[in-house]
Amino acid sequence: MIRPVVLLPEAVLSRPAARVGEIDDGALALAADLVDTMRAYPHCVGLAAPQIGVGVRAFSLDVTGHPKARSCHGELVLFDPEIVLAEGPVVGREGCMSVPDLTGDVARATRVVVRGMTPEGEERVLECDAFEARAVQHEIDHLDGLLFLDRVVAADRVFRRRVYR
């Protein structure tokens, strides 16, 4: 089911999300909703549960076909993800569906290893680099109650989003 994306200053975006723990029918429904909602928005490569108003540690991601992607694990959903290794950083421009009018320059690790649980209840460890690493970190920030605006490298590095026609 496609869910509405909540916008800043919605409180769920600034609170750390709760662990999912066991994968039950509710978690499976959430996984499907995350993917459906991500797919409904052009150019969306990731979506965290708090962005659809659900305060739990889960996100969907798919950087397939993105020109800045090097690693690509395809469409995935991870529950209770954690970064176990990060190397970098490099500054890059980010935007967010929950902050639709702004972008900003954020320093992120260029390589991460993330561990989480799949909807099938299996632990999965992913090695991500370049754009996929940036996207993973962005989504995990949502689970920690942070937005890219909390990580911009300087106040003058926030920009109005360009509109292309």
Describe the protein.
The chain starts with 24 loop residues before the first helix and ends in a 5-residue tail after the last strand. The protein contains two helices and eight strands. The protein has 165 residues and is of the alpha+beta class. A five-stranded antiparallel sheet has the order 1-2-3-6-7. A hairpin with a 2-residue loop joins strand 4 and strand 5 (99-108). The protein has a single domain, classed as Peptide Deformylase, CATH 3.90.45.
The outline comes out as globular
Pattern of helices and strands: HEEEEEEEHE
Helix content: 10-25%
Reported CATH architecture = Alpha-Beta Complex
Strand content: 25-35%
The count of strands amounts to 8
Q: Terminal Cα separation, in Å?
A: 29 Å
**Largest beta sheet: what is the strand line-up?**
1-2-3-6-7
Class based on secondary structure composition and strand pairing: alpha+beta
Topology summary:
Elements: H1 25-40, E1 46-48, E2 58-61, E3 76-87, E4 90-96, E5 99-108, E6 111-117, E7 123-129, H2 130-143, E8 158-160
Antiparallel strand pairs: 1-2, 2-3, 3-6, 4-5, 5-8, 6-7
Q: What labels would you give this structure?
A:
three-stranded antiparallel β-sheet, Peptide Deformylase, five-stranded antiparallel β-sheet, 165 residues, single chain
Give a quick rundown of the structure.
The chain has helices at residues 25-40, 130-143; strands at 46-48, 58-61, 76-87, 90-96, 99-108, 111-117, 123-129, 158-160. The chain is of the alpha+beta class.
